[in-house]
Amino acid sequence: MHSFVYTRASGLRQALDAARRGGRYLAGGTTLVDLMRETVERPAVLVDIAGLPLRDVTLTADGTLRIGALARMAEAAAHPGIRAAHPVVCEALELSASPQLRTVATIGGNLMQRTRCPYFRDVTAACNKREPGSGCPAREGVHRTHAILGTSRQCVATHPSDLAVALAALDADVRVLGPGGERAVPLTAFLLPPGDTPHREHALGPGELITAVDIPPHPRPLRSGYLKVRDRRSLEFALTSAAVALHIRGGVIREAKLAAGGVGTVPWRLPAVERRLIGERPSNRLWSQAAARAADGARPLPGNRFKTELLKRTVERQLRVVGGGR
After folding, report:
1. 3-state class of 256 per DSSP?
2. What is the 8-class DSSP label of residue 157?
3. Among 251, 272, 304, 319, which residue has the least CB neighbours within 10 Å?
4. CB–CB of 217/190 below 8 Å?
5. Does 70 map to a domain?
6. What residue numbers bound the domain in which 254 lies?
7. Which SMART domains match (predicted)?
């Protein structure tokens, strides 16, 4: 680990000032500290923001559920308001990491975590995400767990967050505070696919800080849930996952929100599946027909071609769980 200067922010303004001068924010540290230990990340200044007042979970006047960026994952998963409104969020959090990590890791930090691609984390290997222009050895090397959606010639690494998949399905916004004031960015626009700039992973500007995540109100009743498929049951990242939220009234699907994880360079919304569902009555036949569109646009590599069919099966299974049918 390289040497660095550590400072603890006593307020939002101090945190923003320190970051604007080149500091990096530190909250739970469950990702950043690991990357520093591996010398993948080498910040000169760490700004500890763990004491800032960004931990509350509140319901705004318009019915938006606001989760503070520094709320711990375990706290959010156990929060009765989140669990009652959006079980898919709690299930994604509970499937994200070990209980020990969930008591430390934060909501904002979870969204900012970086890929688990072994080439990215090996500083002796080339990686366009770590060193732009150096190459993407995963394309010709080991890529079984890598993305089949949203990839480019520059990068095929998946985004590792389970929480982000659930939030993408629910049309969540990321609230950001910086030198230019406060703004809200849709989660689906906040996390960036690699394109020709894989080193640009998010829409944060210099010195900007995530303050909260907003989940807008949805029609009721809203059934939701999260399914994660992985090589082993515990302490493993997704091969595929599906976040499903359905509004069913009068026996007809009025709204459908779906996103997939483990298969995309960012959490991947499934609009073709959603369109097939809306206006239809739940049935096993409908789930199968809709899920067949889940991998539209996929560009698998030889070693992860299996994910195309696995994604369809994952989505179909979770539609059956959430939507019922016969």
Report:
1. strand
2. P
3. 251
4. no
5. no
6. 223-323
7. CO_deh_flav_C
CATH of the domain at 284: 3.30.390.50
SS3 16: helix
Domain count, the chain: 2
CA atoms within 13 A on the CB side of 18: 23
pTM (two decimals): 0.96
Q: pLDDT digits over 110-151, tens only? A: 999 999 999 999 999 999 999 999 999 999 999 999 999 999
Torsion of CA 197, 32, 136, 165, to 10 degrees: -70
Last residue of a domain, one of 53, 76, 96: 53
* Domain termination residue (choose one: 53, 68, 95): 53
Distance CA 98, CA 145 (A): 20
Whole-angstrom CA distances from 75 to 56, 82, 86 are 10, 10, 14
**In the predicted model, what is the mean pLDDT of the chain?**
95
Cis peptide before 221 (omega within 30 of 0): yes
Residue type, 283: S
At 17-74, the pLDDT tens digits run 888 777 899 999 888 999 999 999 999 899 999 999 999 999 998 999 999 999 999 9
